[in-house]
Amino acid sequence: MNELFKSTMDQSSPPARIDFNTPAMVRKRRVRAFKDRLTHWYVAIGGLAVLAAITLIFFYLAYVVAPLFKGESLTSEPVLNTAWMQDAGAPLMIAIEEQNQIGMRISDKGEVIFFNVKDGAELHKVALPLPAGVSVASIGKDQPGAPLIALGLSNGQVLVFRHSYLTTYPNNQKTITPSVAWPYGEAPLVLDEAGRAVEHVTVSADGDSLKLAGSTGTQLHVISLEQKENMMTGEMTREQTRIELPQMSAAVKAIYIDPRQQWLYVINGRAQADVFSLRDRTLNGRYKLLEDGNAEITASAQLVGGISLIIGNSKGSMSQWFMARDTDGEQRLMRIRDFKMGSAPIEQIKAEQRRKGFIALDASGKLGVFHSTAHRTLLIDKVTDGPGILALSPRANRVLIESAGKLLPLALDNPHPEVSWSSLWGKVWYENYDEPKYVWQSTASNSDFEPKLSLAPLTYGTLKAAFYAMLLAAPLAVAAAIYTAYFMAPGMRRKVKPVIELMEAMPTVILGFFAGLFLAPYLEGHLPGIFSLLLLTPIGILLAGFFWTRLPDSLRLRVPDGWEGAILIPVVLLVGWFSLSMSPHLESWFFGGDTSTWIRDQLGITYDQRNALVVGIAMGFAVIPNIYSIAEDAVFSV
């Protein structure tokens, strides 16, 4: 009995407990805990690294953009020691070479003196070949940045020369050697055959063509010089012609020629400009430059590129003018912008050589820094006690002023004058445009170009492209998601959904490259086929569905439920092939052989390869996977 009870107790007692603290289990738990901690830190560090990278990108972009909001500064430097200026004559023009190391001074004695900009020491002197008993009466130069200079002489002749700077590295030491050259010969050119003093002069070189204009009193003189070189002998031949222009009604104050040698601007009288066409040799018009009858023109200059004129007056104001077409389609001198510096008369204006900026000095010694396109007054500061002669370096980072027999150097920090709220978001009237416009064009190859930085077309284009992309992508993606979730067989869904989501891996750069190089020209050449495809595809699908319902059950039941969509693949391919192959015939039958021309002539719409249809297809292809995946997951989960 006891043995039976003991046996029963043994059978009903709980089994022995498993020992989880064996060395092997402890070792596994330690390894698992180490992996958990490693994964925890790996995920945490990865997430923090992503946040740190995004933050660094933000700070880097802020660092790059910060100079746009930096203010301009003008720093005075010690007056240069220029003892050689005592007997150097009155200054006609001063200039600075690109490296800010050498300055140039041209005097009324016919001497060109090169000096060190840092200490004022004389480096090199060139005596220009003036005829005996002849003095310098005036000076003029080509557009800003061009090295050509013309001296008007007292005997009616003009001496044309250029200054240049050769950089060499003897013994690994940088050396800049200034020089003067006479590209049209050392002999002066005869401008006034009567031998009267040339009071104002200007010069313009365009390749082998030289235009030279000057005035003697109220009489204008213009000569055209064509210089050609014999390819066999190297001999230079010059052909000179004289352009006859009418006599002015008032005294001439300044003369300018545009770089294309089309227009001659003559500033005359108190506030008038006469514009002549050098090609037609006719007067384009007489323009009143000042509305205030008590003001008169005191200074003028061409901006870089030679298209715009900056006119300064006795009231301390300036205005920008250039040729543009009026409502009648005629080229007229238009007033574009106004700038205010102070109340003292503007004495001199100097244009930058690489941007549409300029500086001005008034009679009270104030120096102003301006940018024409951005319509900005960047800086106004008093630098001297009176008027003087200005020089601005090619990089616009150094200013030199000769006033009261002294040379005053100034350091100018003006990195981004072209950026303003109006230039980024407002309409801007650019040179060679007939009206203010929103334009984005950051670079070009010619010297008269100015960056056009309007963000309005970029913003509008981005929103427009997104709208057309969504117009194409949203219906297709949502409809595909509904069909996949509700009607497609699970086996087919497992194949279709990953393929569509893999489309998201396609780089947008590749899509844009494909759209620009292949899709855009292909659409232009097959417009009737593309529009036929848009019309025939839904019709073909409906007809296929109709005929499918009319098939015997024995055939229809062979296709499993949810796989009917696969039958439409050959239907869509057949409709696409038919539409595109019929495109040339449709174009010939209905559109006169050229659909683009027909659309332009009949509908008044200019077809451009870079159109909304191309953008919609390319960007729509990029966003379809995102919309499809989100919509399909939402529909299928519900």
UniProtKB/TrEMBL annotation:
Record lineage: Bacteria, Pseudomonadati, Pseudomonadota, Gammaproteobacteria, Pseudomonadales
InterPro entries: MetI-like_sf (IPR035906), WD40/YVTN_repeat-like_dom_sf (IPR015943), WD40_repeat_dom_sf (IPR036322)
Entry's transmembrane regions: 38-63, 465-487, 499-523, 529-549, 561-580, 612-631
GO CC terms: membrane
Topology in membrane: Multi-pass membrane protein
Main subcellular localisation: membrane
Protein name: Phosphate ABC transporter permease
Keywords: Membrane, Transmembrane, Transmembrane helix
Organism annotation: Pseudomonas savastanoi pv. glycinea str. race 4
Subcellular location: Membrane
Superkingdom of this protein's organism: Bacteria
